[in-house]
Amino acid sequence: MTVTIRFDDLAPGTIVTNQFESKGILFTSPAAVVRDPDTFVHSLQSRHQSTITPQPTRVIRARFVEPSPQHARLSVVASFSNAGPEGVHALLRVFDAAGRQLDERSFGSTGPVARAEIEFPSPEIASFEVSGRTNRFDALDSVSFDRPAEHPDFRAVYDGAAEPLLLKRGETVRARLSFFRLHGSHGEIVLAVTKACPGTTWAFEPLVVHSGVPHAELVIKADEDAPPAYHFAVQVVAVPRHKTAGRHEREVTVPVSIVVPDEDEQTGQEEPEEPEVGDEMSER
User: Fold this and answer.
1) Side-chain half-sphere of 210: how many Cα atoms within 13 Å?
2) What is this structure's pTM?
3) What number of other Cβ atoms are within 10 A of residue 174's Cβ?
């Protein structure tokens, strides 16, 4: 999906930062919206100037909301409002998520507007910078970039507290799991335990989660001879049966502790108290 930002929906003088976050981009250097009085085109004008000689440089920086790798193509249109015979000239540089420069394009034209585009065979672009000397560049007219389509997805969470569920031998506990559907997810989700607490059996109610069922319960039963365990992390995996539910498995952790009574508590017997010396002498 191609997204184009033209700044036309913002009033002149607006400082641009996160106004286009919902479209997938954040501007990270001081810049404000201006309007060309002749064409009424809104542009983003840099307010940052470096003191590089022989001519100060204007810079506009931005980064994409989604982490790399997401964006394979980036196109920008730069302008210079007072372009003379030399026209406009700017430099487009792109970076990955670690801040390493991937590529750059020097571009310009004899007119007041110029376009540059960078494309990668594999999506890596995480941020970019457009810069130019103040006598050749001062504004960004538009930005276009590829944004990945939103695929069906879901989240799975354990509704309980961080403290472990306490389970005694021969007893059963229930842990409720919730499922949040995203981007039109509606397919079936199958549940399984990938790491169970020793000495226990488990089941799900239901085993398959449908789109109209937001919750499921993990039922855990301890055997009569289950060994003690403290804060054991039971691992649950939720697997989409079809891509209409999502494309990736989701994992959930349920903390469980198995409490084993000591030998005295199991038999219900108490050791007899030894008589005091004074009592023994009085009986004699």
Assistant:
1) 3
2) 0.51
3) 11
